[in-house]
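Batch 3, record 17
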Amino acid sequence: MKVLSVTSELYPLVKTGGLADVAGALPLALKAHEIEVKTLVPGYPAVMRVIGKAEERLHLPDVFGAEVRVLEVEHEGLDLLVLDAPALFDRTGGPYLDQNGADYGDNWKRFALLSKIGAEIAAGAIEGWQPDLVHAHDWQAALTPLYMRHSAAAGMPSVITIHNMAFQGQFSSELFAQLSLPGPAYMESLEYYGRVSYLKGGLTSASAITTVSPSYAEEILTPEFGMGLEGVIASRVGDLYGIVNGIDASVWNPASDPLLVENYTAASLRKRAANRTAVANHFGLDDDDGPIFCVVSRLTWQKGMDLLAEAIDDIVAAGGKLAVLGTGDAALEAAMRAAAGRHNRRVGVIIGYDEQLSHLMQGGADAILVPSRFEPCGLTQLYALRYGCVPVVARTGGLADTVIDANEAALGARAATGVQFSPITADGLRQGLRRAIRLYGDAKLWTQIQKQGMKSDVSWGKSAERYAELYQRLVQKGH
Ligand code: ADP
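Prediction for the assembled complex:
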């Protein structure tokens, strides 16, 4: 089977979050199921720099006023179709934000173009390669299924995956006229309280909707998590699937990870100590017995970072230490810096994005904190499980699905892999932290939890199989 994946991020080329990891790892995992994936990704500078010699597969002189080329190249096992449109993607900032952190004013056009070209390829624009199905990711690619419905690819099945319902791609309805869609598509598919919602366009047009964990698939049917689109989701509930993300087990493997000071396995956990010392040194923390908690996260309300800021003094008072790596809201960055200022050698904060350091933290910290208010899947707790870094997580979405709480029953059955807390408040988090610190005090129990976590199946194996089954079903059924 041939699948076109359409995404605005792709590890290892361009990443702002979990979407990139999934878009980069799933095609590799699907190879085992004889599914050939080509991935359409924008030609940002970071992509254009590394692709080297690429073959031009499509040239369109004017789409939405931009000259567009599609270049095909293989990169680290991925078959890429790079959308080379310098007028829209050759920018010095990030994929969505300019250097000052503001949204590009023409994001509506940039990602409409990505989707439009996805639909063109679905309709056979690339000579000699015709996909059987299209898989679009998040709002940035969400118009692809809609454009397909209004093209020669109208009968082809499509899947849209929601990685985070909070990001919907809403724009002024005045732009609709510029999207090259037939008039009725506005009310039928896109209209959201008088605006245009790209995500809604995908949710109403795709053959199937997936989200990245079973719990989140249920949660988005409720007003609290559905972010205003719960009604749309409810109308498609028969086509809704929750498939938990896996991780790329070759990139995230403590036995071979070159970014660790010392490699280790569950059988040689003691060697983690060298990584722990390295983390303590890097963050300027005392290298004493108290547990090192770490955070690798966007510093945002969604991630519960304000709750963490409230609980930091308690971590320190209970003998714990904290290493924070993240960027995000200015106020939360300031709160983290202030905590580091208050707690010399007990709290270390690095404001920034550092993929390499994140590996060392997973391989050295004793526990990772993920106090998200909502979490479609979450990847950091999955890396943590594999690295024997015990996850302390809010009981929500993918966190609830992937971490087994160390309650009495689970501990008795030797099944526990971490700590879940609820309610998701500062007090709930404090309670979770207290439990984690108590467990850490029992070295034997703590090692048991670490080892059990390292045994968890966090690979793409089962999840890739579920995607493969879904694709097969949709292709057999036709749209
Ligand atoms: P989200 O996609 O909502 O941000 P996920 O947990 O699904 O959350 O994925 C986040 C990804 O980004 C993980 O791979 C995590 O390690 C990485 N990440 C987040 N912040 C940083 C950071 N400051 N430095 C390095 N990696 C980070």
